[in-house]
What does this fold into?
Amino acid sequence: MNNWAGNYQYSAVRRHAPKTVAEVQDLVRNANKVKALGRRHSFNGVADTTEDQISMEHFDRIVAWDRERNTVTVEGGITYGQLCPELHRQGYALHNLASLPHIAVAGACATATHGSGVGNGNLATAVSALELVTADGEVKQLSRERDGETFLGAVVGLGGLGVVTKLTLDLAPTYHVCQEVYENLPLAQLESHFEEIMAHAYSVSLFTDWSGTDFNQVWFKRRESGVHHDILRLRLFGATYADVRLHPIPGLSADPCTEQMGIPGHWYERLTHFRIDHTPSAGEELQAEYFVPRQHAVAAIKAVGELREKIVPLVQVSEVRTIAADNLWMSPCYQQDSVAIHFTWFRDEPAVTALLGEIEAKLAPFHARPHWGKLFTLPHAQLEALYPKLPDFRNLLQTFDPAGKFRNAYLDRHIFGVG
It folds into this structure.
């Protein structure tokens, strides 16, 4: 079985799809090597195992509401596309969403998948408690309130502590968002007004194909009261208002994309880039992403731009977003407000892998951290220097899983420095 993009083939010899926590416990208790699998949206082997793979496809329900604490508890395999409409019907919302709504909550949080906004933490920052089946087959609950540093180490767990069966998420009152797109943002404007541009809306995305120094598109997602009353601005920071709907990749149909043109809609219909009712394409892309401290954003973008002649033939589109700092040990935004530089590549893995090494070298002066669910080539020693809590996380994995039941080649290489 392959991942969503088709670039990675899982090596498990047995695949299971349990429907109850008790079944998960039995599988884990009797396994030698085991790993949970979500919706297969990672581009590497973070969820791979050589023996037993547990699909969480049946763990897709809302378990409980707590209206006093404003939280919801969900099963780990539920997708944001399944969850968000029901949150809205109950009068609630999440603070942030990723580009795609088709990803599972547990997998997204375990890899620190993010979304955008200068004041918005990644998706894992909404987690206030989790339940997991540990290596001995027992069920363990962890909470932000009770478990302190252990909890902060476990939330972005890379699948290494156990099978996450439930998560409790902090909620906000439901809200509306409108989305407007501008074209051709000059690099000089970005240099002069980066902070102002990225704070101009609740969530902001910059898109480029690196063919020039300008950014092809800027997507502004603004929180609204539900009634659109703004006066249209034809130019903003030197960019021109797009009076037709656009896809981030030039030339593609905008039909899969969420509504634009300043038309208000529910938060979950605008914060993602792509519609819940649209199945994203598969098999046509690779992805990589690097996080740098926000104060280095423009310098890092310009450094990557020095490679544009090599990037242009391989890239479909690149996106720049901001994410607020957090205290989750293995989050790329651990204790630093960050800017993520994302790449969607054509399916030429040898060429892309070679180029990633050059991009990483350009970004090294800015201490760029990789996205755990995407492609990167950074060695273990460099990762350990970038993540100050990595040794503590390694110890946490050994405490929860002393025999290495949830260890795989990915954790061996990146966390333990083996292989």
